[in-house]
Design brief:
This protein is of the alpha/beta class. It is built from 15 helices and eleven strands. The strands form three sheets. A seven-stranded mixed beta sheet has the order 3-9-8-7-6-4-5, sandwiched between helices. Strands 1-2 form a two-stranded antiparallel sheet. A two-stranded antiparallel ribbon has the order 10-11. The chain starts with a strand and ends in a 15-residue tail after the last helix. This is Aromatic amino acid beta-eliminating lyase/threonine aldolase domain-containing protein.
Length: 419
């Protein structure tokens, strides 16, 4: 039986896989069909295409977005509602169920399903930002600034204040204090949003730091006619972060006015993100979702798959993190430079510092049956196998041994991912 997860009143995750399920009311009429209105009308049987895809991603370290649906997700798609989420005033039942689940887990007032993480982030920022001049304070590596096709200045007419964390890992209160822009000097656009990210390159922004930054930002003086500076969280891998840190998801989310949680990264859904905030915030966000092309007709199938992904994947995250750390230790023993602490599901190598050409890194992986990006970032997910991790280490061992032996390594321009 697949693991199941719920959150308790404090927002901690509780495994309920040992709890006896309720007796089904379904009556089977054929091998594949059932008659109960509240049960599946067709039982999904894994296809050759899905099995092949699952095997491929079990060896794929490019990103945790490469995961493919499980059988439970495919069944959820079959059982999903197919209502119009725009014309129907009450929305689609499967979408509503997903949104309600995230509200329950995070403790926020309201939620809204969006097509992607980029869309979710940019809707949140645009909803907070009203009239220029304004700026967003963020980590210089932030996804909302670097990896969303320049959407921030286009969609929100906002400048970005890029901050290099003094500790080299994550932003702290001191970093924010030094770079926040107050009203009053017409040369500089005042800070209207502080946007944080958790995780970032696999590293955790601790709850303690999030609380300190939030307390300072929400009480930062602004003109009496201006609303307080908003706190936004790009929580693309937030479940990885709170699981690894061992803190309450509700406590973490309380630090922010808006949150975007990607359902397709560490959680493994086929697509989509959820944004969360107050009820007035989400009501306004609906306008921008429509404006950005996110009004969908029958999204229930993707929402149902995401709902199933949440229940399936969250209990597996500690195992993903453990395998990542175990593999990182083996790679470090081979002499590779790891640039950031390995805290969740990523290992970031400095190939240039180790004299490893990107092409050689990619091709040695291919020789051992694993897929990597040439950037040196290795991402683990719930469908990575221990065998694949072992072959990854074998590939990097052979590569380092050949380099030390003076063998000429392949070196030509390669692309992919963040290169």
């Amino acid at each position: 039986m697949a693991p199941s997860i719920i959150s308790d009143a404090e927002g901690h995750f509780v495994d309920t896989s040992s709890v006896a399920p309720k007796k089904s009311t379904m009556t089977t009429t054929t091998n594949n069909e059932t008659t109960a209105e509240d049960g599946p009308t067709f039982k999904y049987t894994s296809t050759r295409k899905l099995k092949n895809a699952q095997w491929q991603v079990s060896n794929d370290f490019r990103s945790d977005v490469v995961t493919v649906p499980t059988e439970s997700m495919m069944q959820a798609i079959i059982d999903a509602s197919v209502q119009d989420d725009i014309y129907n005033e009450e929305g689609d039942p499967s979408v509503n169920a997903l949104q309600d689940r995230l509200i329950e887990l995070t403790g926020k007032e309201a939620a809204l399903w969006t097509l992607s993480g980029t869309m979710g982030n940019q809707i949140c920022l645009r909803t907070h930002l009203t009239q220029p001049p304004h700026s967003v304070l963020l980590d210089y590596r932030a996804h909302v600034h670097n990896w969303e096709s320049g959407a921030l200045p286009v969609m929100s007419q906002a400048s970005a204040t890029q901050v290099y964390p003094a500790n080299g890992v994550h932003l702290t209160l001191d970093d924010v204090k030094k770079h926040i822009i107050a009203d009053g000097n017409i040369h500089f656009p005042p800070t209207r949003v502080v946007s944080l990210e958790n995780t970032l390159s696999g590293t955790i922004l601790p709850l303690k730091d999030a609380r300190e930054i939030s307390e300072f930002v929400r009480n930062f003086p602004v003109p009496e006619w201006q609303k307080p500076i908003a706190m936004h969280l790009d929580g693309a891998r937030l479940f990885d972060a709170v699981t690894a840190e061992g803190v309450s998801l509700k406590d973490y989310c309380a630090c922010f006015d808006s949150i975007s949680i990607c359902l397709a990264k560490g959680l493994g859904a086929p697509m989509g993100s959820i944004i969360l905030g107050s009820k007035p915030f989400i009501e306004r966000a609906k306008w921008f979702r429509k404006m950005f092309g996110g009004g969908t007709r029958q999204p229930g199938m993707m929402a149902a798959a995401a709902h199933a992904a949440i229940e399936h994947t969250i209990p597996l995250l500690p195992g993903v993190h453990a395998l990542t750390k175990k593999t990182a230790a083996s790679i470090a023993d081979l002499g590779y430079t790891i640039t950031l602490p390995v805290q969740t599901n990523m290992i970031v190598l400095d190939l240039a510092a180790d004299g490893i050409p990107a092409a050689a890194f990619l091709n040695y992986g291919k020789k051992h049956g694993v897929t990597v990006f040439p950037s040196g970032r290795l991402v683990f997910h719930h469908q990575i196998t221990e065998d694949a991790a072992s072959r990854l280490v074998d590939a990097l061992r052979e590569l380092m041994e050949d380099k030390k032996a003076g063998k000429t390594l392949e070196s030509y321009k390669v692309s992919g991912g963040y290169v």
